[in-house]
Write a structure and sequence with these properties.
Length: about 240
């Protein structure tokens, strides 16, 4: 299997990088010529292509959702985080809710397509070394989520789990987002198997492990005290990690 991975990994990596490079100027055109909606459509197509490109290493991505997600309300998608491969599927499956990520500020420059989308697409870029900047940025982000009824996507673990084992949730970002969106809903999501793409490290890539995203019952933000809300969210996400 690892020998096959050495054959397939370069093909996937080249395809992945080419998609990011090709879509970077298309994003610029979409935003400058057609505004927000034009930019979003380009990003939606990019993420769809990135998800499908994982078939080159035998990785399928599926969504299990038995719940109707509320409409015309702010949704806060809260998920465990296993690898960078989590991001395109979340963007594709929840594209109707205009998902916006909370990301570290370093990703706001230097990465084709990714940096452009984060910088101009409505994300929150957080400087982990500057508490004042982080609070101000989260406040701005949270107000925009409320105003536009967008979806926010946050990984409370703060960093990726290299072996699939969950890390303790941090509450700071969630506290700010929920403060400005009390009438919204938290949507807990459990991601399984995406860490296996990097089980050998950065190279070669792990192949043939299907990624699954499981959506749990939405929780109205103002239905519980904050500490209970976070406890319930963390519990349901972690209990479904395989």
């Amino acid at each position: 299997m690892k020998i096959l991975s050495h054959i397939l990994s370069p093909i996937f990596i080249l395809t992945f990088v080419l998609l990011l490079v090709i879509f970077h100027p298309i994003q610029w055109i979409g935003l400058k010529v057609f505004g927000y909606n034009g930019h979003k459509k380009v990003v939606d197509v990019l993420n769809f292509c990135l998800v499908k490109s994982m078939l080159l290493i035998g990785v399928t991505v599926s969504l299990k959702n038995e719940h109707d997600l509320p409409k015309d309300a702010s949704l806060v998608f809260v998920s465990n985080h296993q690898s960078i491969s989590d991001i395109p599927p979340l963007s594709v499956f929840f594209r109707k809710h205009h998902p916006k990520f909370v990301a570290k500020i370093e990703l706001g420059k230097g990465v084709p397509s990714v940096s452009f989308n984060l910088k101009y697409g409505g994300a929150a870029l957080i400087n982990r070394k500057d508490g004042k900047q982080a609070i101000a940025e989260l406040g701005r982000f949270s107000k925009n989520i409320h105003k536009n009824k967008w979806g926010a996507i946050i990984f409370p673990e703060g960093t990726r789990s290299r072996n699939g084992q969950p890390k303790k949730f941090s509450t700071n970002g969630l506290k700010m987002i929920t403060k400005y969106n009390p009438e919204g809903y938290i949507v807990p999501i459990t991601i399984n198997n995406s860490w296996k793409i990097f089980k050998y490290g950065k190279y070669p890539l792990g192949i043939g492990s299907p990624i699954t995203l499981t959506v749990h019952k939405p929780i109205k933000i103002d239905s519980l005290p904050f500490d209970d809300l976070i406890k319930e969210t963390e519990s349901v996400i972690i209990s479904h990690i395989k």
